[in-house]
Inverse folding.
C-alpha cells in the first residue's frame, strides 16, 4: 500500500521565528511554545510594525522566548527583565515593549520590580508564563506553586500561600489584567492584542503545563492531562472578584477563573513630561507624538 | 563505609552531619541538587533542620546571617550569579562576625551565560571577610564542610566560611566518599555554644549601627583581618583533630610529587586532578614536575606557599579565572608570597579552563616547556591565555555561522 507524504517546507509563522535556533530547548508538552506563538500572532495583528516590538525576558525556560523570536529581543539576568524593559520604554517611547518571563523570575527574585513598575504605570506589557514552579532549575517550589502541590523542595506539598497574580497586579496599579491558559489560545491572543493597544502597565498571566517540573510530581501524567484539567476546571468570568482568583488544585470543585479582569485608564509614566510644572506637560506630550488612545 | 556520592550530595551530607538548624535556600544550577537533597531529608524528618526557600540569594544570605546571629547553626549553598546577587550580604554578614557555612558551586559568570565552572564567582568574594576553602574531590567537599564549622565557630575566628567545589566536574561526578558516624561527627564539632549570639531578647542591644569617623570603622575591619589570620592556626588545629578522628589530613595547601620537584604547577579545585595527570606524564618523561594545589584561599596561607615554592627552578600558576585588565588573580597573590624571597623562582602566569574549557595535554606540555626554558634562562615569558589551534578553528566556524567571520 502506498501512502503519499506531504512535507510542509514552510509554516506561515516562519518569518516570526529564528529558524536557525531550532530545535528549541523546551520539553515535549511544554506550554511555553503555544503561548509564544499566540504572542507572535498578536504582534502581527497589532498593526504595530514588527520592527517596533521589543521582547525582554529574565532567566528560565520562559526566558528563552525572546531568543526564538525574530525581533529585537533581550535575555537579561534573573529577575531583571522589568527594569531593563522600563528603561527601554522610557528612552524609546515609540517602541512596544513586552516582558515575557516566568513566575519565578517575575514574582520571586524580581517581585520588587513588578510592583513598582505597576505602581508607576510604566508603558509595558508583562506576560507571565505561570507553570507553578521553577521549571529551568528542575521543579522547585516558587511563589505561585498552589497549596499542597509537590515540588523538589516541597516533597510533601507546598505549605506557603501562593500569590494570586491578577489580584496582585490590579492592587499594585496595572491598567489591564487578564488570565488565560495555553489551552485558550484565541482568548490569549486577544488579551495580548488588547495589552499591546493599551498604554500603561498591562499584565497577562498564562497558565501553562510544565509536565517535567510540575506535572510529574503532582500525578498529572502529561501535558494533555494538564490541558484536560484546564478544560474541565476553567470558567471564564471577567467580573469575578479579584480576591477570589486563587488557584487551588486540591479542591476538585474549585474552578480556575479566567478572563480579562481589569481594563482601566491611569496616567502613564513619563518622567520627561511629569517632572515639569503642570502647564508644560501637554506641550511635551504633543512633542513626543504619542496619543493617549494610541 | 564508603558511598558513591556526587559532590553536591557530599555537600548535603556535610550539612546533615554538622547537624545544622537552619537552611535558607534558593535554587541555581549546578548547586540545586544540594538544597533538593536537604529539602527531602527535612521533609521526611530525617534531619531536624528548618528548611526554607527564600525569594532570592539576597534574602537567603540575609536570613542565614540573621539566624547565625541568633545562635542557629546555618548552612546554605549557591553558585555563580546567585553568589553575585547576594554579594552585598557577604560583606555585611562577615562584618556581623557570625559563623556559617556557604557552599559555592563554581560556575562561570555572565555574560555570555554559561553553566560550567571557573572561579571568577568565588574569587569575587575574596575580599568579603568570608573565609574560603576550595575542594578537589567529593571527599574533600564533605570533610571541608565539617572542618569549616569548626573554624568558623571558633571564638578566635567567628567568620563565615565558603566551601567551594567545581560545577559539573565535581558537583555531578560520583566518587567514593567515606562518611563518619553521626556520633563521631558530633564529637568532632563539639557542643555548639554560640557565644556570639547577641540576638536573644533578655539583653537588649542595638546592632548593625553606623560608625562615622574612620577610627571606629578601621578598628572593626582590622578585627576581621586579625580573626582571619587566626584562622590559619585554627585550621591547623581543626586539621590535626580531623586526622586523629578520621584519618585524613588536610594542609593549608596540598602538594603532589613536590619533594624533589624543580618545576611546579600551581592550581586549585577539581582541575588540579588534570594537573596531577600532567605531573605524572612529565615525570614519565624524566621532567621533575610537581603540583601545588591552593586549598585555603582565605586567609591566604602566604608562609606555607613561600615554603612550598622557594628554591624551585620555575613555577607556573594556572588561574581558572580572569580579572579583566589584569590577568590571573591568584598568580599575583602567589607572587606576593614569594616576593621577599632572595631565591625566588621565575613565576609564569597562565589563564585556562574558563567556563570549564578543557586544559589539554598539549597545553600542559606547552606550560612544561615554558617552565624548562624559564628555569634554564631565568627569564619569565609574558602571561598566556590558553587556547588551542583546534579551539580557534572551531570558533571561526561558529563565527561564520553567526555571520561574523573575521571577527576573531
Ligand atoms: C541570581 C540568580 N539566582 C538563581 C538563578 C537560577 N535560576 C535560573 S532560572 C530560575 C527559575 C526559573 O523559574 P521561572 O522564572 O518560573 O521560569 P520557568 O523556568 O519556570 O519558565 C532560577 C532560580 C539565576 N539564574 N540567577
Ligand atoms: S522544564 Fe517545564 S517549563 Fe521548562 S521546558 Fe520543560 S516543560 Fe517547559
Ligand atoms: Mg515557572
Amino acid at each position: 500500500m502506498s501512502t503519499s507524504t506531504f512535507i510542509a517546507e514552510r509554516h506561515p509563522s516562519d518569518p516570526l521565528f529564528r529558524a536557525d535556533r531550532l530545535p528549541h530547548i523546551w520539553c515535549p508538552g511544554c506550554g511555553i511554545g503555544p503561548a509564544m506563538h499566540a504572542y507572535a500572532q498578536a504582534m502581527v495583528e497589532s498593526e504595530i510594525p514588527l520592527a517596533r516590538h521589543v521582547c525582554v525576558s529574565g532567566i528560565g525556560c520562559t526566558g528563552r522566548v525572546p531568543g526564538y523570536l525574530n525581533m529585537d529581543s533581550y535575555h537579561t539576568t534573573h529577575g531583571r527583565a522589568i527594569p531593563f524593559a522600563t528603561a527601554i520604554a522610557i528612552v524609546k517611547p515609540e517602541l512596544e515593549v513586552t516582558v515575557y518571563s516566568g513566575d519565578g523570575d517575575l514574582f520571586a527574585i524580581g517581585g520588587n520590580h513588578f510592583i513598582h513598575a505597576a505602581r508607576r504605570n510604566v508603558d509595558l506589557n508583562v506576560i507571565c508564563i505561570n507553570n507553578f514552579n521553577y521549571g529551568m532549575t528542575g521543579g522547585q517550589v516558587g511563589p505561585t506553586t498552589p497549596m499542597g502541590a509537590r515540588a523538589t523542595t516541597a516533597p510533601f506539598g507546598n505549605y506557603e500561600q501562593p500569590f494570586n497574580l491578577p489580584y496582585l497586579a490590579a492592587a499594585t496599579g496595572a491598567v489591564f489584567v487578564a488570565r488565560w491558559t495555553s489551552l485558550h489560545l484565541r482568548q490569549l491572543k486577544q488579551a495580548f492584542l488588547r495589552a499591546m493597544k493599551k498604554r500603561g502597565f498591562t499584565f497577562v498571566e498564562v497558565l501553562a503545563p510544565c509536565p517535567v517540573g510540575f506535572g510529574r510530581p503532582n500525578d498529572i501524567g502529561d501535558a494533555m492531562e494538564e490541558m484536560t484539567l484546564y478544560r474541565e476546571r476553567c470558567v471564564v468570568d471577567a467580573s469575578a472578584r479579584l480576591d477570589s482568583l486563587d488557584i487551588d488544585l486540591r479542591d476538585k470543585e474549585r474552578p480556575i477563573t479566567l478572563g480579562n479582569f481589569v481594563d482601566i485608564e491611569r496616567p502613564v509614566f513619563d518622567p520627561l513630561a511629569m517632572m515639569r510644572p503642570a502647564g508644560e506637560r501637554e506641550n511635551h506630550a504633543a512633542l513626543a507624538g504619542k496619543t493617549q488612545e494610541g | 563505609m564508603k558511598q558513591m556520592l556526587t559532590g553536591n550530595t557530599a555537600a548535603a551530607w556535610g550539612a546533615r552531619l554538622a547537624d545544622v538548624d537552619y537552611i535558607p535556600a534558593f535554587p541555581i544550577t549546578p548547586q540545586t541538587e544540594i538544597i533538593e537533597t536537604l529539602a527531602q531529608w527535612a521533609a521526611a524528618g530525617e534531619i531536624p533542620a528548618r528548611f526554607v526557600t527564600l525569594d532570592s540569594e539576597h534574602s537567603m544570605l540575609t536570613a542565614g546571617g540573621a539566624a547565625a546571629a541568633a545562635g542557629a547553626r546555618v548552612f546554605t549553598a549557591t553558585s555563580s550569579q546567585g553568589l553575585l546577587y547576594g554579594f552585598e550580604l557577604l560583606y555585611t554578614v562577615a562584618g556581623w562576625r557570625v559563623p556559617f557555612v556557604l557552599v559555592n558551586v563554581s560556575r562561570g559568570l555572565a555574560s555570555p551565560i554559561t553553566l560550567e565552572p571557573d572561579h571568577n564567582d568565588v574569587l569575587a568574594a575574596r575580599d568579603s571577610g568570608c573565609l574560603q576553602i576550595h575542594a578537589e574531590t567529593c571527599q574533600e567537599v564533605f570533610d571541608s564542610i565539617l572542618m569549616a564549622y569548626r573554624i568558623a565557630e571558633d571564638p578566635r575566628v567567628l567568620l563565615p566560611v565558603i566551601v567551594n567545589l567545581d560545577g559539573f566536574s565535581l558537583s555531578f561526578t560520583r566518587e567514593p566518599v567515606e562518611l563518619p558516624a553521626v556520633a563521631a561527627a558530633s564529637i568532632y564539632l563539639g557542643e555548639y555554644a554560640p557565644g556570639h549570639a547577641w540576638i536573644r531578647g533578655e539583653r537588649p542591644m542595638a546592632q548593625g549601627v553606623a560608625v562615622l569617623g574612620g577610627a571606629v570603622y578601621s578598628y572593626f575591619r582590622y578585627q576581621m583581618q586579625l580573626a582571619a589570620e587566626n584562622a590559619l592556626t585554627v585550621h591547623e588545629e581543626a586539621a590535626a583533630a580531623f586526622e586523629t578522628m578520621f584519618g585524613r589530613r588536610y594542609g593549608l595547601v596540598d602538594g603532589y610529587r613536590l619533594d624533589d620537584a624543580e618545576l611546579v604547577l600551581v592550581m586549585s579545585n577539581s582541575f588540579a586532578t588534570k594537573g596531577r595527570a600532567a605531573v605524572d606524564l612529565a615525570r614519565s618523561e624524566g621532567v621533575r614536575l610537581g603540583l601545588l594545589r591552593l586549598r585555603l584561599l582565605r586567609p591566604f596561607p602566604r608562609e606555607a606557599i613561600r615554603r612550598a615554592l622557594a628554591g624551585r627552578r620555575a613555577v607556573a600558576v594556572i588561574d581558572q579565572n580572569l580579572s579583566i585588565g589584569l590577568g590571573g588573580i591568584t598568580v599575583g597573590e602567589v607572587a606576593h608570597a614569594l616576593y621577599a624571597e632572595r631565591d625566588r623562582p621565575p613565576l609564569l602566569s597562565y589563564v585556562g579552563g574558563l567556563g570549564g574549557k578543557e586544559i589539554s595535554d598539549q597545553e600542559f606540555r606547552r606550560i612544561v616547556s615554558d617552565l624548562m626554558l624559564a628555569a634554564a634562562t631565568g627569564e619569565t615569558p609574558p602571561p598566556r591565555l590558553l587556547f588551542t589551534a583546534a579551539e580557534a578553528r572551531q570558533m571561526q566556524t561558529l563565527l561564520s555561522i553567526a555571520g561574523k567571520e573575521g571577527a576573531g
